[in-house]
Design a protein that fits this description.
Distance between the termini: 53 Å
Oligomer: single chain
Structural class: alpha/beta
Strand content: 5-15%
Number of strands: 8
Shape: elongated
Order of helices and strands: HHHHHHHHHHHEHEEEEHEEE
Length: about 450
C-alpha cells in the first residue's frame, strides 16, 4: 500500500512539472478548481501502477522492449496530459512534450552519473535491480524545480502572430537528445561507459536542451517585435489616412459653405423680387445636382462611418471604384476595437490587391448589414491568390513580416460566435463573415468554411 502510494506521488510530481512547463507556452482549457480536478483525475488514472498506465505500456510493447518502449510510453502519457488540460495545435502538443521529456531524461542521466562517481558499485546494483526509488525522487524533484523556474521566468503570453514553427527546430534537437540519452543508458548498462562519461555527456545534452528553451523564447520575442512593428506601421498609415480624409472632408465642407451662401443669396434675390416660380425651379435644380456627399456611407455608427469614409478616401485616391451596401448599424454590440481590426484590415487588403491591377479593373464592393446577426462581405478584384488551409500564400518580401492583418482578423473573430469564408473566383477575391451581434467572450468559437 505504501509503495503504491509512493509511486502515485512520484507520478503526480512528474505530471505537475509537465503542466508547469506546458502552462508557460499554452492557454488552459479550464480555470480554477476545474483545472486541478481534471489534473488529479488524470494522475489517478495514469499513475505508474494504474490500469490505464499498464494497458498503455502493453500497447507500447509493439515497438519492442527497453528504452524505446519506455520513451514512447512516457511521451504518450505526457502528450495526453497536455492535450487534456491545454488548448494548442497538435504539432505543438508533440513538440513541447518531446522537449520536456528530453530534459527529464538528461536530468536523470546527470543525477545517476554524478552519484556513480562516488558510489559506483552501490548505484550499479541499484540500477540493475531496479531498486532506485530514491533516485527517482531526486530526478522528479529536480525536474519539478526546473519547470517551476521556467514557468516563473516565462509566464504565458498569447502569441497572436506566433507560428508553430518556433518549436520545430527545438523539438528536433530534443529528439536527437532523447536518442543520445537512450544510447548512453544502454552503454552504461552494458559496461561500455563509466559514470564520469555519463555525467559529462549528460551535462552537454542538458545544456543543448536548455538552449532549445532559449531558442523558443528568442523566436517568440522576434515574432512579438515583428507584430509590434507592423502594428505601429499600420497605426502610422491609419493616422495619415485619417488626416487625408479629414482634410478632404474639411475642403468639401468649405465648398458646401461657400456654395450654400451663394445659393441663399440667389434665393433671397428671387424671393425679394417675388419670383416664386424662379425660386422653385432653382431649388429643383439644386436637388438634381446635389449628388456629392461628405459621407459616402452613413450607418448611424460613428466608428464604422469614420472607418468606411476614411478607407473610401484612400480607395478614390488610388482610382478604385468602391461601393458600400449598409443599413442601420447603430445597434451593433461588437467591440469598436474589434470592428476596426476586422473591417479595417479586410478593406486594406482589398485596396492593396486592387492597386496591383490596371485602373479600369479596380473594384471593391462591401456589405455591412445588421439583422439578427451581423453580416460582413468584402469582394474585390484581385490578382490570382492561393488559399491553403484558410491561409493566403503571401507573395510579399520578406514573407514572415506579412500576413499579420488577416491573422488579426481571425484573432478578433475568435472572441465571437462567428463563421467566415474566403474564396477566389473569376478574378474576384471575397471574404464573408457572419457573426453573432454580441459582446466579446473567451468562450466563443469561430469557424472557417471547409
Amino acid at each position: 500500500m505504501i509503495e503504491h502510494l509512493a509511486v502515485a506521488i512520484v507520478s503526480a510530481i512528474a505530471f505537475l512539472g509537465a503542466i508547469l512547463l506546458y502552462g508557460a507556452f499554452s492557454p488552459r482549457r479550464l480555470e480554477g478548481w476545474k483545472f486541478w480536478l481534471c489534473f488529479a483525475a488524470y494522475c489517478v488514472l495514469m499513475e505508474g501502477n494504474g490500469f490505464l498506465a499498464n494497458e498503455l505500456f502493453s500497447v507500447c510493447g509493439a515497438v519492442g522492449d527497453g528504452v524505446g518502449r519506455q520513451t514512447l510510453y512516457n511521451v504518450i502519457r505526457y502528450a495526453l496530459l497536455y492535450a487534456l488540460l491545454f488548448r494548442e495545435r497538435p504539432v505543438i502538443y508533440l513538440s513541447v512534450t518531446v522537449i520536456f521529456y528530453s530534459w527529464a531524461c538528461c536530468i536523470e542521466n546527470l543525477v545517476v552519473g554524478a552519484i556513480l562517481i562516488f558510489q559506483d558499485d552501490a548505484i550499479r546494483l541499484a540500477v540493475e535491480y531496479h531498486e532506485r526509488g530514491w533516485l527517482i525522487w531526486i530526478n522528479e524533484l529536480l525536474i519539478l524545480c526546473g519547470c517551476a523556474i521556467i514557468s516563473k521566468a516565462h509566464p504565458y503570453q498569447p502569441q497572436s502572430h506566433g507560428s508553430q514553427n518556433r518549436f520545430t527546430i527545438p523539438a528536433i534537437i530534443s529528439l536527437v537528445s532523447i536518442v543520445m540519452t537512450g544510447r548512453l543508458q544502454n552503454g552504461y548498462y552494458q559496461g561500455e561507459i563509466n559514470g564520469a562519461f555519463l555525467l559529462y555527456f549528460a551535462a552537454v545534452l542538458l545544456f543543448s536542451d536548455v538552449m532549445t528553451f532559449v531558442l523558443i523564447v528568442w523566436n517568440e520575442k522576434d515574432e512579438r517585435l515583428k507584430g509590434e512593428n507592423l502594428t505601429l506601421t499600420a497605426r502610422a498609415r491609419t493616422q495619415a489616412e485619417s488626416i487625408e480624409a479629414l482634410s478632404a472632408a474639411y475642403a468639401a465642407q468649405r465648398k458646401l459653405t461657400h456654395d450654400f451662401n451663394a445659393h441663399l443669396a440667389t434665393l433671397s434675390s428671387y424671393l425679394e423680387n417675388r419670383q416664386i416660380k424662379d425660386a422653385q425651379d432653382y431649388i429643383a435644380t439644386l436637388r438634381e445636382h446635389q449628388t456629392d456627399r461628405i459621407l459616402i456611407a452613413n450607418t448611424h455608427n460613428s466608428t464604422i462611418d469614420a472607418l468606411l469614409n476614411q478607407k473610401a478616401q484612400v480607395a478614390k485616391k488610388n482610382n478604385i471604384d468602391i461601393r458600400f451596401k449598409v443599413n442601420d448599424l447603430s445597434g451593433i454590440k461588437v467591440a469598436p476595437m474589434d470592428l476596426v481590426i476586422i473591417i479595417g484590415n479586410l478593406l486594406d487588403n482589398a485596396i492593396e490587391a486592387c492597386v496591383k491591377l490596371p485602373a479600369t479593373e479596380r473594384e471593391i464592393y462591401a456589405q455591412l448589414l445588421l439583422k439578427d446577426t451581423l453580416f460582413l462581405s468584402f469582394r474585390n478584384t484581385s490578382p490570382p491568390v492561393e488559399i491553403v488551409n484558410s491561409y493566403i500564400a503571401t507573395t510579399k518580401k520578406p514573407p514572415d513580416l506579412h500576413g499579420f492583418g488577416l491573422q488579426n482578423v481571425k484573432t478578433a473573430l475568435k472572441k465571437y460566435d462567428s463563421f467566415y469564408d474566403m474564396a477566389y473566383e473569376d478574378g474576384y477575391f471575397a471574404f464573408t463573415i457572419e457573426m453573432e451581434n454580441d459582446l466579446p467572450s473567451a468562450t466563443k468559437n469561430s469557424f472557417f468554411a471547409t
